[in-house]
Amino acid sequence: MKPSDLRHRVTFRVPPDPPTDAVGGELDYVDGDTTWAGMTFIAGLEKYAANSLAAQATHKFTMRFRAGVMPNWKLTFQGRTFHILYANNVGGQGVSLELYCQEINGTT
Fold first, then answer.
1. In sequence order, what are the beta bridge partners of 2?
2. Domain extent at residue 78
3. Domain holding 87: CATH number?
4. Is residue 16 situated within a structural domain?
5. Domain-embedded: residue 108
């Protein structure tokens, strides 16, 4: 992975702990770490090749490996929000991480 491939600044959005307030109302996600990532749009043919859990993904983010990233987290990038569907530790080596995501508030 070349550093020039990681040119997008993304922020993780994580669910609060506990997820509800004192009266049972659901709380909004909170900002987590910010990191550099590469982003690619997943075209129709790539969707078929992707893992079945990520079949509805619209984008793939590639970054340096980070432990603990969960599929219920979100990513934000330039005012856009993405729901993480699947996290892939590439080759199981703990070097790079692929996040298959579905855009929540965009046009795709």
1. none
2. 3-103
3. 2.40.10.270
4. yes
5. no
Tell me which residue has tokens 């109302």.
25
Task: Domain count for the chain, please give it.
Answer: 1
Query: Which amino acid belongs to residue 12?
Result: F
Within its chain, how far is the Cα of 107 from the centroid? 17
Query: CB count, 10 Å around CB of 2?
Result: 6
Question: Averaged in consecutive runs of 10 residues, what is the pLDDT profile of the chain (108 residues)?
Answer: 79 79 68 93 58 68 92 91 90 88 72
Identify the CA nearest to 11 among candidates 39, 41, 32. 32
Long-range Cβ contact pairs of 88-93 (< 8 A, separation 24 or more) = 88/51, 89/65, 93/65
DSSP state string for 11-65: EEEE--SSSB-TTSPBPPPEEEEEEEEEEEE--HHHHHHS-GGGTT--EEEEEE-
Beta-bridge partner residues of 59: 41, 101
Predicted TM-score (pTM) of the model is: 0.77
